[in-house]
Write a structure and sequence with these properties.
Layout: H1 6-14, E1 20-25, E2 35-40, E3 44-47, E4 56-62, E5 66-72, E6 78-84, E7 87-92, E8 101-106, E9 128-130, E10 134-138, E11 144-148, H2 152-163, H3 167-170
Parallel strand pairs: 3-9
Antiparallel strand pairs: 1-2, 1-4, 2-10, 3-8, 4-7, 5-6, 5-8, 10-11
C-alpha cells in the first residue's frame, strides 16, 4: 500500500477551513447559557462584548493545527488563554478573569486570509477586528434562538434586554444565519 500520493491531498484539505464559530458566556465554570459569538475564517480580533460576558469561551470544531485565544484589555494584545484544536474546546475562568476579546487562527503555514469585508483593519494596523456577530439565548418558548448583532452598541442593547428578562424585545431582532 502506498500512502505518499494521499499526503498532498490531505494537506490541501486541512488548509481549507470554512468559517468557525466561537462564543463567550457569562458562566465562570461552563460553556453554557446565553452567549455572544463570532464567525470568521480566522485571524480576526472579535469583541469587545458586554461586561457580563467573557468568563468562559468555546471554540467550535477547531481543526488540527489551530488555536483559539482570549485576551483582556479591549483588544487582542494582552494574552489571557489558549485552547488547541482539534475539536470543540471550552475555556473556563473559574471567576478569576474575563476575556474581552477572542480570536482563532491557523498555524503560520496554514493561515487563511480574514474576510476583509467583515473586519476592517484595526487602528494599529495589526490585523482585523470586529464586534460580535450573534447572540444565542433561550427564547420565550424555551427553544434556542440566535439573533444577529450588527454592532458593539447593539450588543449592549441586546445584553440589557436579556438581563432585564425582556424576551419580547429580543424577539424583534433578526435571526442570525451563517
Amino acid at each position: 500500500m502506498h500512502f505518499p500520493a494521499i499526503v498532498p491531498f490531505l494537506l490541501a484539505m486541512s488548509s481549507t477551513v470554512s468559517a468557525l464559530n466561537y462564543r463567550v458566556y457569562s458562566s465562570t465554570n461552563s460553556c453554557s447559557g446565553s452567549s455572544f459569538g463570532c464567525s470568521d475564517n480566522g485571524a480576526v480580533c472579535c469583541g469587545s462584548w458586554p461586561a457580563a460576558y467573557g468568563y468562559s469561551a468555546q471554540f467550535d470544531n477547531l481543526p488540527i493545527g489551530t488555536q483559539g485565544q482570549g485576551y483582556t484589555g479591549g483588544s487582542c494584545r494582552s494574552f489571557l488563554f489558549a485552547v488547541y484544536g482539534s475539536g470543540t474546546q471550552c475555556w473556563k475562568s473559574g471567576g478569576g478573569s474575563r476575556a474581552t476579546n477572542a480570536n482563532w487562527f491557523h498555524s503560520a503555514s496554514r493561515r487563511v486570509k480574514a474576510r476583509a469585508e467583515e473586519a476592517p483593519a484595526s487602528a494599529s494596523g495589526e490585523g482585523k477586528e470586529c464586534s460580535p456577530h450573534f447572540f444565542s439565548y433561550a427564547a420565550e418558548n424555551g427553544e434556542a434562538r440566535t439573533i444577529k448583532v450588527n454592532s458593539a452598541e447593539e450588543a449592549g442593547v441586546i445584553a440589557k434586554h436579556f438581563e432585564d428578562g425582556n424576551k419580547t424585545a429580543l424577539a424583534d431582532f433578526d435571526d442570525y444565519t451563517d
